[in-house]
Write a sequence for this structure.
C-alpha cells in the first residue's frame, strides 16, 4: 500500500523526510497530485510502510502539516482513518 | 595582484566553491518546480544549504532561512516587513546605505544613536538613551568602513526588554564572528553570501524570526492557485527561480568556514590587522583608525595627509594592490567618525590574505606617504 502525507511546503516535506530517515523510515519527497491539493501545486511524502509510526513522529516534531492519504488498488486516494495508522 | 577589498567581496574563494557551482549548473534544475530527478536534486541541494545555514547561525527551523540576492535584498525585505511611513526607527551611527536608503524611501522617522568610533559602551548607551518611543531598531554587527564591532548582543537584549523588534545587518560579521540567531532574538538577520561566507556574488541569507512581507511576488512552486504569496516560509519570501549554482557555491563556502572555525578565521584576520597597524603606525602622514582589542574586526580604514583617498587607491591599483576608497556606501559611519569630508582608504582581510601581501601593501603606502610629504 502506498501512503501520501501531504506537506505544507517543499521545505517542510524535506525536513519531514529527514526526520523519518533518521528513524529508519524511508520516505520520498514527491509532487502531490493536483486533485489532493486545494490550492494547487505542492509536495508530499510518499511511503510504503510504518505509516502510523511516521505520522506519530511527524506529529511530535510539529511537522505534520497536511492530510494523510492511502492509494487504493484502483489508483484512487482516500483519506486515512484512525485504524489505517496502525499499519 | 594583492587583494585587500574583502569587506566588499571576497575574491579568492576555496576551490570547492567554483567546483560546486559548475556541478550545480550541469546537474540541477529548479527546486520546487517539478518532481523529476533534476528538480529534486536541486531541491535537495537547496535544502542542505538551508540546514547548513540553520546550524551555522543557530536557527531552529531551516524553513526560516530564506535565500536572497545579497544582504541589501534581505534588509529591504526586513525593513518593508516591519516599517511603514512614519515608523520611528532607531539605528546605529554606523549603518550602511542598505539600511538608511530603504528607511528613507519608506518615509520612516530615523533616529540615529550616534556614538564615537570603537566605543562599545557609548554605543550601547546611545541606544539606551534614544530607544524610548522607537518602534523598530536596526543595527549592524560590524561597521563596513572601520571594522568597529558594535555591541549588538547587548543592543538586542535592550530591544527585547523594551519590546522593540530588531533587524541585524550581519554583512561584515557572517563567517568571521559568531552570529547566533536565537541569542540575538532578532526579527530578521540579513547577510550576504559573497563576503565572509566565501560564496559567489548574487547570494545572501535572511534569517527570519517573523513571517515577513514579500518584496517580490511570483511563482513559488507551491499553492499555485492562490494569487497571493503563500503564508509560510521560505516560500513566502522566495518568488522566482532560485540561484541554484550560487547557493551551491555559498554552501561550499560555508563548509570551508565551518571547517576552519570562526575563532581561527578571526585570529588570522586579527594577526593581519595587527601586522598592518604595526607596519604603518610610525609612518609620517598616515592616520590609522584603530580600536582597542575586541572592538575591531579585520577591516582597517586609513587616511594619508595631503593625498586624496581615491587617487591613492588608483596609484595602489597601478601597483597591483586592490583597496577600496571613498565613503564605502556608508556616509553615516563617516559622519560618526568625522571622515565625511575625505572618505577613507580601506584594507579588509580574509583567511586567504598572506602576511607577505600586507608587507608589500604597507611598503607601497609608506612610499606614497614619503612622496606626499
Amino acid at each position: 500500500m502506498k501512503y501520501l502525507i501531504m506537506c505544507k511546503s517543499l521545505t517542510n516535506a524535506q525536513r519531514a523526510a529527514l526526520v523519518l530517515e533518521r528513524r529508519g523510515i524511508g520516505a520520498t519527497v514527491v509532487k502531490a497530485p493536483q486533485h489532493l491539493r486545494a490550492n494547487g501545486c505542492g509536495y508530499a511524502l510518499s511511503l510504503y510502510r510504518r505509516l502510523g509510526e511516521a505520522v506519530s513522529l511527524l506529529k511530535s516534531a510539529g511537522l505534520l502539516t497536511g492530510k494523510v492519504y492511502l492509494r487504493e488498488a484502483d489508483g484512487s486516494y482516500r483519506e486515512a482513518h484512525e485504524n489505517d495508522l496502525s499499519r | 595582484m594583492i587583494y585587500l577589498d574583502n569587506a566588499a567581496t571576497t575574491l579568492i574563494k576555496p576551490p570547492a566553491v567554483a567546483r560546486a557551482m559548475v556541478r550545480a549548473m550541469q546537474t540541477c534544475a529548479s527546486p520546487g518546480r517539478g518532481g523529476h530527478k533534476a528538480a529534486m536534486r536541486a531541491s535537495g541541494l537547496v535544502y542542505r544549504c538551508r540546514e547548513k545555514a540553520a546550524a551555522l547561525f543557530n536557527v531552529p527551523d531551516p524553513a526560516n532561512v530564506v535565500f536572497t540576492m545579497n544582504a541589501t535584498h534581505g534588509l529591504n525585505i526586513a525593513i518593508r516587513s516591519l516599517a511603514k511611513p512614519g515608523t520611528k526607527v532607531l539605528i546605529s551611527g554606523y549603518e550602511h546605505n542598505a539600511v538608511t536608503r530603504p528607511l528613507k524611501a519608506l518615509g520612516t522617522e530615523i533616529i540615529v544613536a550616534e556614538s564615537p568610533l570603537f566605543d562599545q559602551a557609548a554605543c550601547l548607551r546611545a541606544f539606551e538613551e534614544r530607544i524610548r518611543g522607537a518602534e523598530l531598531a536596526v543595527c549592524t554587527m560590524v561597521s563596513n568602513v572601520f571594522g568597529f564591532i558594535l555591541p549588538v548582543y547587548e543592543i538586542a537584549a535592550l530591544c527585547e526588554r523594551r519590546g522593540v523588534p530588531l533587524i541585524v545587518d550581519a554583512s561584515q560579521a557572517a563567517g568571521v564572528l559568531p552570529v547566533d540567531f536565537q541569542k540575538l532574538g532578532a526579527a530578521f538577520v540579513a547577510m550576504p553570501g559573497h563576503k565572509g561566507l566565501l560564496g559567489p556574488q548574487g547570494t545572501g541569507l535572511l534569517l527570519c524570526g517573523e513571517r515577513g512581507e514579500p518584496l517580490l511576488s511570483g511563482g513559488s512552486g507551491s499553492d499555485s492557485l492562490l494569487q497571493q504569496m503563500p503564508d509560510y516560509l521560505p516560500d513566502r519570501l522566495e518568488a522566482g527561480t532560485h540561484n541554484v549554482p550560487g547557493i551551491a557555491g555559498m554552501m561550499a563556502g560555508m563548509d570551508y568556514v565551518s571547517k576552519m572555525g570562526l575563532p581561527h578565521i578571526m585570529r588570522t584576520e586579527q594577526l593581519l590587522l595587527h601586522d598592518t597597524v604595526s607596519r604603518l603606525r610610525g609612518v609620517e602622514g598616515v592616520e590609522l583608525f584603530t580600536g582597542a582589542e575586541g572592538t575591531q574586526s579585520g577591516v582597517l580604514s586609513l587616511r594619508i595627509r595631503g593625498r586624496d583617498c581615491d587617487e591613492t587607491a588608483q596609484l595602489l591599483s597601478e601597483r597591483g594592490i586592490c583597496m577600496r576608497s571613498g565613503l564605502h556606501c556608508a556616509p553615516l559611519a563617516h559622519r560618526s567618525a568625522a571622515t565625511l569630508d575625505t572618505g577613507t582608504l580601506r584594507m579588509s582581510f580574509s583567511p586567504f590574505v598572506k602576511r607577505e601581501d600586507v608587507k608589500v601593501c604597507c611598503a607601497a603606502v609608506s612610499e606614497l606617504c614619503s612622496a606626499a610629504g
Observations:
- Chain B has twelve helices and 13 strands.
- The mean pLDDT of chain B is 97.
- The interface with chain A takes residues 31-32, 34-35, 40, 43-44, 47, 50, 61-63, 221-226, 230, 232-235 of chain B (CB under 8 Å).
